Amino acid sequence: MLQTNPLYKALPMLHDFLFPITLLLILTFTSTKARASEVVHVFILAGQSNMVGAGEVESNPSRNGGKGSLQWLTENSSTKDSYSHLRTNTGDWVQRDDVLIWFLGRKGPLEPGYGSNPNKIGPELGFGWTIGDAFEEPVLLIKIAWGGKSLAEDFRPPSLDGETGLYYTKLLEHTKKVLRQADQFFPQLKGRTFLLEGFGWHQGWNDRINQSFNDSYEHNMIQFIKDIRQDLKAPSLPFVIAETGMSGLEEQHPRALSLMNAQKAATNHPEFNGNVAFVPTRDLYRPAEDSPSHQAYHWNNNAETYYLLGKHMGEAMLELLKSK
Predict the structure, then answer these.
(1) Of residues 170, 144, 166, 156, the one with CA closest to residue 220
(2) Is 274 helix (H, G, I), strand (E, B) or coil?
(3) Do 155 and 163 meet the contact criterion of CB atoms below 8 Å apart?
(4) Pairing between strand 120-121 and 55-56?
(5) DSSP characters for 64-104?
(6) Under 8 Å between Cβ of 111 and 95
(7) What tens digit of pLDDT does each residue of 254-305 get?
């Protein structure tokens, strides 16, 4: 069984992580293993607007003939076989009852529509399908993301000098709340043991456009990972960091290249060997002529990009879990 979360001895210090007796969050290895039928695998997805998600779901003929939308991908002859699993025989979007999601109050079975609005997707869809297919037990995605947020200020980890970022604090608060109240949000999971398995991160634009934020990104990312693990009492929690590659392989801006290098360098920190992974994304870029928009900073609103981004994050996460 993939089980990465040890139970700390000092349970009194974890008072705000304790569930009702029937719903206990396990955060480290325990000698008493939960039966598979009682387990829920939990993953956190966090970041800024490209984790929120801007991939178009329904085709809009006025937006480049609908190209690049999720609907178009499932109907276009050259792509539909790769995305047919997302539609039922009657054409409805599949709802995965075995993969549940909570996104800032929106909750339910995983399906398209958990992006910035019900007609958008983010990486959660591809991530959830990839992770869900790998487990027989249920999966819970806790997605916590806001647009326009930097690592240097908004998500600033507490181990750095200066004020802890408001959205770092909110990230922890939301995570703890969902885990405490999971049986209320998802009654079908009542009585199960929740295993915090991994953390997915896709963020960087607001640090990319600021030189000082850019220069400190590698160090800030390293401290962010360390602090999240400490604050969630999960010292070896696997992390995957998706590259901020929104302009694709043609990107030449010095700050953009610097930020992507910093993201990769952070994952190569010696103590992260085997428990943190870098996910290249530049080759997932789709040009504007094949997409619903020309918003390069939002991957041109291309649903395939967002789906594949999540899929690649999920595959990287599974590799980290295998190594454990």
Answers:
(1) 156
(2) coil
(3) no
(4) antiparallel
(5) GGGTTSHHHHHHSTTTHHHHGGGB-TTSPBP-EEEEEEEET
(6) yes
(7) 999 999 999 999 999 999 999 999 999 999 999 999 999 999 999 999 999 9
